[in-house]
Amino acid sequence: xxDCIFCKIARREIPSEIVYEDxxxxxxxxxxxxxxxxxxxxxxxxxxxxxxxxxxxxxxxxHLLGVIRRLASEFGVAESGYxxxxxxxxxxxxxxxHLHFHLLGxxxxxxxIG
Length: 114
Ligand code: 5GP
Ligand code: ZN
Hints:
Layout: H1 5-10, E1 18-21, E2 25-29, E3 37-43, H2 58-74, E4 82-85, H3 89-92, E5 101-105
Antiparallel strand pairs: 1-2, 2-3, 3-5, 4-5
This protein binds guanosine-5'-monophosphate and zinc ion.
The site of guanosine-5'-monophosphate (5GP) has 14 residues, from strand 2.
């Protein structure tokens, strides 16, 4: 997707603080963090939301959750606790139309954060 912000981040056409990358996944710091640790983890493939995650993407999603688990440990929130959020669609509050998972932690999270 040529005009998608997160595709552009994955292609490094928009600068971001990338904290993890492999062939399928990239993770970067959220530009407007809602918590001391606020990472955005995305598949490089342009899936619009969780609604696009059909069975062919099950392995990718398992891999992505494993990356999130390792990032939680690396960023020091595995024991203190964290939240993983994927906003989906208008009512879900999704702003960027490329599937992404927020990893939030580093403080006690208000019920509304994420
Ligand atoms: P959504 O509301 O769609 O679930 O979350 C989109 C997230 O992407 C927001 O938390 C927002 O701050 C973040 N974001 C939007 N544009 C950029 C950007 O250009 N760079 C980075 N690092 N984060 C962004
Ligand atoms: Zn995209």
